[in-house]
Q: What sequence folds into this?
C-alpha cells in the first residue's frame, strides 16, 4: 500500500454485497423464497474487521484443503470527509478518492446470516496499490474490473453494472451510520467468483486505478 | 479494578473508578460520576451474538442455534454511559438488549477454551438496541438494525477479570423509567465466553480492544423518546441511557 493510501484509509472497511446487476438478477427467484421472502430493500452491508487488512503484494493464507478461497474484485471508495445524512447530490464531495479492493471470502451459499466466518479471516481484504484522487477519475461508474489468476483472465465486469451507484450508496448508508473520513466503502464484487489455490498470483485491475496483486499461500503450522 | 475512558474539560483521560464510582485521573484529581462525559471503554470491533439465550430465541420464535450467530459492529455505533440514543421517526418497535461484554486484552488466534480468559482485558456491558422495523433477511440482523450511530451504549468501564470470579452466573437486568422489564442470568447463555473466544479465534485474530457482546435473555419491550433505560450486569456495572427523538439527536449533534 502506498504511503498516501495507508495514511488516509485507516477506518472501517464497509462492504456492499449484491451490488452488481448480474449477481442480483441471477438469484431473483431464490430471493423471492424463504428465508429471504423478498429482494433486498436497502443496500446489503457487511463489515471487514481490521484484522482483514492486507496490502498490494501481500500474501493471503488459503484456509486449507476442502475449503474454497475466492477473490472478490471491487472498486474501493475512500471517504475524505465525515458523511452523516448526506444527499445524493452532495455525496461525492465526501469522497477522497478511489482504490482497488480484493475482498477475499469463503464461498457464500446463503446471504441469510452475517458472513463473519467467510469474510473476516486475517488478511482477507487487500487494498491498493494507490489512492487515486477523486478529481483524477472522471467517471467511476464506467470502469472495467478484471480478475486474473496467474495471468489468465477469470472474471470481468464493469462498474456501469452497479445496482446502486456510489452517491446512492453514500446517501442510503449515511442516513443511519456516519461514514467517517478514512472509511473504505467496498462497492461490490461481480458475479462469477472463482477459486484460487496456494501458489496462485491474483491480480485485480481496474481501469485508471492500476493493478492490485496478491499471492496465495498455504496455511503452515506454527506461523499464525 | 475498573478502568474507563472519559472526557473532562475537553480532554480525554484513561481513568480508574473506585467502589463508590469516584473517577480518579492519572494526575491525582478525583471527580464524581456526573462530572465527566463517559466514553465507550474500548474501541475495537464488536462481535455480537444473536439468539444466544434459549429463552430469547424462543421469544423470537427461533430454534436455538447450533453454531454461534455472530454479527459485527463498527465503532461509530458505540456511545458511553449517561449518553443519548435516538429512536428514528415512524418506527413501531425499538428494543433494548442487556448484554455482558468480554473485552479482548491481547491478540488471540487459535485459543483453546481453557486458556480463553487469559486473553481478556476484562468485562463491560452494553445495550445492544435494535430497530426491528428495519430487519431484512440478508446478513440478518442487518447493519441498519444494529449498527446505527450512537445506538450501542457500552460501559461505563472495563472491570478486571479477577473481579468477576464466575462470569457464567451473573444476573442481567433492564429497567425502563425505573420499572424492571428484563431479568435473566448469564448461566442461560448457549455459547459461553470461553467457547466464543475459541470459535472466533479459530478463524481470525481477535485484537486488543475487540469486544464480544454475548447476547440477551428474554424480556424485550419498546422504548420511546423520554425513556431512561438502565441495563445492569451483576458485579460488572450499570449503564444508563436516555432515548431522544431523531430531530433532537441530530440537532444536539449539530450544536456539539
A:
Amino acid at each position: 500500500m502506498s504511503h498516501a493510501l495507508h495514511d488516509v484509509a485507516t477506518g472501517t472497511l464497509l462492504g456492499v454485497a449484491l451490488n452488481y446487476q448480474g449477481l442480483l438478477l441471477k438469484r431473483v427467484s431464490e430471493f423471492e423464497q424463504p428465508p429471504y421472502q423478498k429482494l433486498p430493500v436497502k443496500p446489503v452491508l457487511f463489515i471487514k474487521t481490521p484484522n482483514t487488512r492486507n496490502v498490494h503484494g501481500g500474501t493471503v493464507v488459503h484456509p486449507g484443503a476442502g475449503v474454497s478461497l475466492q477473490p472478490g474484485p471491487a472498486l474501493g471508495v475512500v471517504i475524505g470527509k465525515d458523511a452523516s445524512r448526506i444527499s445524493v447530490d452532495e455525496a461525492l464531495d465526501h469522497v477522497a478518492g478511489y482504490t482497488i479492493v480484493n475482498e477475499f471470502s469463503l464461498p457464500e451459499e446463503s446471504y441469510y446470516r452475517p458472513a463473519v466466518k467467510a469474510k473476516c479471516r486475517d488478511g482477507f481484504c487487500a487494498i491498493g496499490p494507490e489512492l487515486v484522487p477523486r478529481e483524477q477519475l472522471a467517471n467511476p461508474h464506467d470502469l472495467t474490473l478484471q480478475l486474473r489468476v496467474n495471468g489468465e483472465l477469470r472474471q470481468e465486469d464493469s462498474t456501469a453494472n452497479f445496482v446502486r451507484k456510489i452517491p446512492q450508496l453514500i446517501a442510503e448508508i449515511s442516513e443511519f451510520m456516519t461514514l467517517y473520513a478514512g472509511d473504505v466503502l467496498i462497492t461490490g464484487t461481480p458475479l462469477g467468483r472463482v477459486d484460487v489455490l496456494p501458489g496462485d498470483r491474483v491480480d485485480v485491475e481496474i481501469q485508471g486505478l492500476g493493478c492490485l496483486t496478491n499471492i496465495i499461500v498455504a496455511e503452515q503450522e506454527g506461523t499464525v | 479494578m475498573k478502568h474507563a475512558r472519559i472526557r473532562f474539560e475537553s480532554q480525554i483521560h484513561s481513568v480508574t473508578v473506585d467502589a463508590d464510582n469516584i473517577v480518579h485521573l492519572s494526575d491525582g484529581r478525583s471527580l464524581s460520576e456526573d462530572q465527566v462525559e463517559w466514553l465507550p471503554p474500548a474501541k475495537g470491533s464488536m462481535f455480537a451474538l444473536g439468539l444466544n439465550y434459549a429463552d430469547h430465541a424462543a421469544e423470537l420464535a427461533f430454534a436455538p442455534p447450533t453454531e454461534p450467530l455472530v454479527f459485527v459492529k463498527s465503532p461509530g455505533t458505540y456511545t458511553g454511559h449517561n449518553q443519548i440514543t435516538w429512536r428514528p421517526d415512524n418506527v413501531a418497535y425499538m428494543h433494548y438488549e442487556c448484554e455482558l461484554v468480554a473485552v479482548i486484552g491481547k491478540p488471540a488466534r487459535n485459543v483453546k477454551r481453557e486458556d480463553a480468559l487469559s486473553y481478556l482485558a476484562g468485562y463491560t456491558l452494553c445495550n445492544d438496541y435494535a430497530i426491528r422495523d428495519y430487519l431484512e433477511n440478508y446478513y440478518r440482523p442487518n447493519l441498519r438494525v444494529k449498527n446505527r450511530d450512537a445506538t450501542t451504549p457500552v460501559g461505563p468501564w472495563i472491570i478486571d477479570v479477577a473481579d468477576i470470579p464466575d462470569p457464567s452466573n451473573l444476573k442481567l437486568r433492564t429497567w425502563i423509567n425505573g420499572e424492571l422489564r428484563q431479568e435473566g442470568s448469564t448461566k442461560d447463555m448457549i455459547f459461553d465466553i470461553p467457547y466464543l473466544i475459541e470459535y472466533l479465534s479459530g478463524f481470525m485474530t481477535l485484537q486488543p480492544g475487540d469486544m464480544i457482546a454475548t447476547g440477551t435473555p428474554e424480556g424485550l419491550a419498546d422504548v420511546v423518546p423520554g425513556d431512561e433505560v438502565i441495563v445492569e450486569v451483576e458485579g460488572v456495572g450499570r449503564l444508563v441511557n436516555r432515548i431522544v427523538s431523531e430531530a433532537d439527536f441530530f440537532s444536539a449533534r449539530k450544536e456539539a
